[in-house]
Specification:
Layout: H1 12-24, H2 28-36, H3 40-48, H4 55-76, H5 78-86
Helix pairs in contact: 1-2, 1-3, 1-4, 2-3, 4-5
Organism: Parascaris univalens
InterPro entries: NADAR, YbiA-like_sf
Protein name: NADAR domain-containing protein
């Protein structure tokens, strides 16, 4: 499942992206802690504590990780997939003052 598991409770993109980042940089303990954590702020803090993080390497892969996470999210959840398909050709956007890349 590539680390993308929809347990019905988490923001799958956020968790899966941070989880995959930890795996990419070889930090298995942080990856496990991310998947056990329930609070988004703590997941973010865990991802910032990666010992071998390389921003250039991650930035080169971030778009693909986002795509994989979203494909998995909508493949695993029939209700969300139907809701997405109902949007048709509409533009879907998130506006977040704190998220510089995806918000």
């Amino acid at each position: 499942n590539l680390g993308y598991v929809d347990d019905g409770d988490r923001t799958i993109r956020g968790w899966s992206s941070m989880y995959r980042k930890a795996l990419l940089f070889g930090d298995i303990e942080i990856a496990k802690a991310i998947m056990m954590e329930r609070e988004p702020r703590k997941v973010k803090a865990l991802s910032l504590s990666l010992r071998k993080y390389n921003g250039t390497k991650w930035n080169a892969m971030n778009d693909e990780e986002m795509r994989r996470g979203l494909v998995a999210k909508f493949a695993q959840n029939d209700h969300l997939r139907r809701m997405l398909l109902l949007t048709g050709d509409s533009l879907i956007a998130e506006c977040s003052g704190k998220e510089r890349i995806w918000g």
